[in-house]
Design brief:
Blueprint (H helix, E strand, L loop, with lengths): L3 E4 L2 H9 L3 E3 L6 H8 L6 E5 H6 L2 H9 L4 E5 L11 H9 L4
Parallel strand pairs: 1-2, 1-3, 3-4
Length: 99
């Protein structure tokens, strides 16, 4: 298993491969299965594009983002088609403050 794993579209994956990161490009409809299968130790960091993160069911997202090892982070899409999660809003919801 790699230390860092990128999961996203083929074009973005080619850039990450040039940086020495192992990449995974899941087929449409298999994103959740693919991510949960590969987001395991000894991988230390899993990078998901915003588009992949949006395809995951909420329960899978919650479980993945709660992991300490490997840490799972969302990175912007190359084509910027999907918005990044609003971190400030997420923190406010978790703390129970704000609307």
């Amino acid at each position: 298993m790699p230390a860092i794993l990128f999961v996203g579209d083929a074009v973005s994956a080619s850039g990450w491969r040039l940086a020495g990161v192992q990449t995974l490009v899941p087929e449409a409809g298999t994103e959740a299965e693919c991510v949960t299968q590969h987001a395991v130790a000894p991988t230390q960091l899993v990078l998901l594009t915003a588009a992949i993160a949006q395809t995951l069911p909420a329960s899978v997202q919650q479980r993945l983002f709660a992991l300490v090892s490997p840490m799972v982070l969302v990175v912007p899409d190359l084509r910027d088609q999907c918005a990044m999660p609003d971190l400030a809003e997420t923190v406010r919801k978790q703390l129970g403050v704000g609307a």
